[in-house]
Design a protein that fits this description.
This protein has about 260 residues and is of the alpha+beta class. The chain is built from eleven helices and six strands. It starts with a helix and ends with a helix.
């Protein structure tokens, strides 16, 4: 942690220590995993009893706790108080009941305050949802790709650029699935450590398309060919039935409408 991040954490712990409703406080997120850096936010898990949960969240929003001053704050999913300080340090306070806390992975937590018993490390096991996620990803990629004649036919170049970014994002998700990266470990602002050097080079070489037909078609073709080259063996490995009819129809549609071969 930087000095500013440590000072922010110390302020958070002191504010929470002064609240008798707080049973325990735990460092979580990237710093607890040993993966934090100077650009990481400070993630803290706060355990309170069920009857106190709503009041604690209301007090955070109302500024009734002695938390660090913020220029922006909001509730995420109704349970996480997220703030940005005047110096643009960021923190998240995730409030859990003891029962919810017991289901956390203790390997991703470090005690800061209060009760000493952390949940045990969650045992590694097969990702039983991976096949369903990959199947949905493949169908959605083909669906979005198949819509490209709409924006190109209308000369909606800005919409086309947005579509390319959707396809690029799905390609990244597919590569993370290929590498078996747990969804909880991915993080919103980290990719380098989860991708191979070859994968990174392939993604980084993809052009950011200009707002014109030729550039959009070129980028869509490159993304689609790369996606399919990785998706087919991954689907086979996971036992996912390949959507042959949908793929063939999409290929024919793009060839007929746009002259695009994927």
């Amino acid at each position: 942690m930087t000095d500013d991040q440590q000072a922010l954490l110390d302020h958070l712990v002191a504010a929470l220590a002064a609240d008798p409703r707080v049973r325990s406080v735990w460092l979580s997120g990237s710093f607890a995993r040993g993966a934090g850096d100077a650009w990481s936010d400070v993630d803290v898990t706060v355990v309170v009893d069920e009857p106190d949960l709503a009041a604690c969240l209301r007090d955070c929003v109302a500024g009734a706790l002695a938390l660090p001053a913020t220029v922006f704050s909001h509730l995420v999913h109704g349970r996480i108080f997220s703030g940005v300080t005047p110096s643009w340090s960021r923190f998240d306070l995730a409030f859990l009941t003891p029962a919810e806390f017991s289901g956390q992975d203790g390997a991703g937590l470090r005690r800061l305050l209060g009760e000493t018993a952390a949940p045990p490390p969650r045992p590694a096991g097969p990702d039983r949802d991976a096949a369903a996620r990959v199947s949905r990803l493949i169908f959605e990629f083909l669906r979005v790709l198949g819509l490209s004649p709409v924006c190109i036919g209308r000369e909606e170049w800005l919409v086309g650029q947005q579509g390319v970014e959707l396809l690029r994002g799905m390609l990244v998700d597919l590569l993370l699935e290929e590498n078996g990266v747990p969804r909880a470990a991915r993080g919103a602002k980290r990719l380098n450590g989860f991708l191979s050097l070859d994968q990174r080079a392939a993604l980084e070489s993809l052009p950011g398309p200009a707002a014109d037909r030729a550039a959009l078609l070129d980028t869509q073709g490159e993304i689609a060919r790369l996606f399919l080259a990785h998706a087919q063996p991954l689907a086979q490995r996971l036992g996912v039935a390949w959507p042959e009819a949908f793929e063939a129809a999409t290929r024919d549609h793009l060839r007929r409408e746009l002259g695009l071969e994927i």
